[in-house]
Amino acid sequence: MNVVCLDMEGVLVPEIWIAFAEKTGIPELKRTTRDEPDYDKLMKFRLNILKEHHLGLKEIQDTIAMIEPLPGAREFLDRLREKTQVIILSDTFYEFAMPLMKKLGYPTLFCNALEVAEDGEITGYRMRIAQSKLSTVKALQSVGFDTIAAGDSFNDLAMIEASKAGFLFRTTDKIRREYTQFQAFEEFDKLYDAIVKCL
Predict the structure, then answer these.
(1) DSSP for residue 154
(2) H or E segment to which residue 184 belongs
């Protein structure tokens, strides 16, 4: 029995923080897990910038409302879910992701939660579990599932390595060069075909 585990941002939808950086004109917010492997360090950096610029959850959600899934993502997910179970494993937050899940047909999503003050300031965040993607893949394996994983960033590599099969999708040149053991794809059709071959 198989479960496909997919990253969300950069794979199915555009990077939320990059879209927000472009809207606000704050280039520092373009930094993502493709650039910074330490997620805790990255989030503290982001929260400090938000505080400095007096930006909160509402402003980010206003940007998210305008984001559409990547072209072909919804169709890819629908086709894949006809073949097997799919879980999206993301380091994003439910407060960010739910409008995007609606646009993707409400796939199963495991992610994290924000701590938000009454005035809308994001004061912190709660990770669901340490090393959430790898921990989830291992938990699925412990109850009898084989996992197949795909992602684009440093924080996806552990779940890709731990899975029966793993793929890079629309990743950076740096990751592609350093992790040549994984097939890398740019198109949903090719990723779909590679995954289905492993089922």
Answers:
(1) G
(2) strand 183-185
Q: Active-site residues: which are they?
A: 7, 9
pLDDT in tens, the chain (199 residues): 999 999 999 999 999 999 999 999 999 999 988 888 888 899 999 999 999 999 999 999 999 999 999 999 999 999 999 999 999 999 999 999 999 999 999 999 999 999 999 999 999 999 999 999 999 999 999 999 999 999 999 999 999 999 999 999 999 999 999 999 999 999 999 999 999 999 9
Please say whether the structural domain 2-13+70-112+127-198 has been given the CATH code 3.40.50.2300: no
- CA 36/CA 63 separation, integer angstroms: 23
- 62 CB burial (10 A radius; 0-12, 13-18, 19+): exposed
Distance CA 165, CA 183 (A): 10
- What residue spans define the domains of the chain? 2-13+70-112+127-198
- Residue 46 corresponds to which amino acid? R
